[in-house]
Write a structure and sequence with these properties.
With 131 residues, the protein is mostly helical. It has helices spanning 2-25, 32-60, 64-90, 97-129. The longest helix has 33 residues, at 97-129.
């Protein structure tokens, strides 16, 4: 997981450098804030065009828990990164990718336990109360 995160950071850095080179090459002279506005705005809209149809498809098939899991998983990643960055800035701890990985793994493990209990509950309901 650590190697994957480093790979993601490296890819983002390469894309960032390429965008800066294009900005300079075509003399657009966009500021850093203007580039963030344009790129993150376009990235967000691109993600909407992918995520919205997938979530609609999941909702039509009554997979609302999957939608909830994706949303919470995304929030957990953002929160763990924010905590680690906060530790770095405030010097209240050491910023480590391992902390992020263990935090995310904790959520996944607890969700698996929840899913097993929920699955058993639904099986019991189906067997004993639905004919």
């Amino acid at each position: 997981m650590g190697k994957f995160l480093y790979w993601v950071v490296e890819m983002i850095a390469r894309i960032h450098n390429r965008l800066l080179m294009l900005n300079d090459a075509y003399e657009y002279n966009f500021s850093d804030k203007e580039l963030h506005f344009l790129i993150i705005g376009a990235l967000g809209m691109g993600m909407i065009f992918v995520v919205h149809p997938v979530f609609k498809w999941l909702a039509r098939r009554n997979h609302i828990m999957v939608i909830s899991w994706i949303y919470v998983f995304t929030l957990i990643i953002v929160i763990t990164f924010a905590i680690e960055i906060g530790q770095r800035v405030t010097h209240t701890g050491v910023m480590e990718f391992a902390d992020i990985m263990f935090g995310v793994l904790g959520f996944i493990c607890m969700f698996l336990v929840f899913s097993a209990v929920r699955g058993i509950y639904h099986v019991v309901l189906k067997v004993f109360f639905r004919k």
